[in-house]
């Protein structure tokens, strides 16, 4: 796809499961510095079941998010064709929102430990970290996205009715930041209610901001609303710095090597990458090509087509006008 567009120099880093199993190395020494030297990073799906403790995924995906401080996980949810939606009677206009998932703290930081592991007395602790700076920058980013992209409202979702310490901070920050954006309407939902409403009436949502774990969970719902995880794209951003782009889905081990996996999530992630690099026309060209392939059912089986991965990719490349 990138070669077809031209003007992009590609460097391939072999940091996948094969490399890890052969060398024991996930990210080499100075690997994150190397990543910072590129304009953007495109990452394939992770989660090979041969790596039992998932260490390579943790170091590469979560490691890059943390080390490069990619605090915005930007996950657009857009239904490209009514046929793909698992909900009845929805049109493409009904499902068009973005989720801003906090990407550098929360339950993902790995603060905690296990005591007496493997015994009946085992105690397992995993702390959720919420910092004023961390919450503030993602909430502010959500309002900026709403304002600059002509979106009307920001919905912040937390669980402050049960998590009365950590999520009180989210409440306070949301109040503070929303007051600075009187032109954008703001709304709060508990995350469980949001999960329900995403299924009952997704048309009401525009920009959603939430913490790391809740964002992980609701963007799988978002994937389903678009036709399945194979359709979902994401950007891991630190505005102004080297950022990382990846499909929302994992490596789908049962599909590996079978020419069955849907390439659209990865291709739309490339569009997000080009958009972030300022190549708006190229990003639009990819999006239009994907929309056209979806309309013509020139897609893989998971979204109602008959093509394999490679031909579905070709179908999109041929449509790059
Ligand atoms: C995602 C994935 C990752 C996450 C996993 C692979 C650690 O589910 O990007 O949504 O939980 O962030
Ligand atoms: Mn996920």
Contiguous low-pLDDT stretches (5 residues minimum) are: none
Strand-pairing-aware structural class: alpha/beta
Count of beta strands: 10
> What is the helix fraction of residues, given as a range?
25-40%
**Approximately what portion of the residues adopt beta-strand conformation?**
15-25%
Main sheet strand line-up = 1-10-9-2-3-8-6-7
Distance between the termini: 12 Å
Please summarize the sheet with the most strands: 8 strands, mixed
Q: What letter string, H or E per element, gives the SSE order?
A: HHHEHEEEEHEHEHEHEEHHH
Compounds present? 3-isopropylmalic acid, manganese (II) ion
Shape: globular
The average pLDDT is: 96
What is the helix tally?
Answer: 11
Q: Which value, in Å, is the CA radius of gyration?
A: 20 Å
Key terms for this structure?
321 residues; alpha/beta; eight-stranded mixed β-sheet; two-stranded antiparallel sheet; 11 helices; 39% helix; binds 3-isopropylmalic acid; binds manganese (II) ion
Question: Could you provide a short overview of the structure?
Answer:
This protein is α/β, with parallel strands linked by helices. It has eleven helices and ten strands. The two termini are 12 Å apart.
How is this structure best described in words?
With 321 residues, this protein is an alpha/beta fold. Helices cover 39% and strands 16% of the residues. The protein has 11 helices and 10 strands. The protein has helices spanning 2-5, 17-23, 31-36, 55-67, 132-148, 166-179, 191-200, 212-226, 264-276, 280-295, 309-318; strands spanning 40-42, 72-78, 96-102, 112-115, 123-126, 153-158, 185-190, 207-210, 233-237, 243-247. An 8-stranded mixed β-sheet has the order 1-10-9-2-3-8-6-7, with helices on both faces. The protein has a two-stranded antiparallel sheet with strand order 4-5. Helix 9 runs antiparallel to helix 10. The longest helix is centred in the middle third of the chain and has 17 residues, at 132-148. Residues 216, 220 line the site of manganese (II) ion.
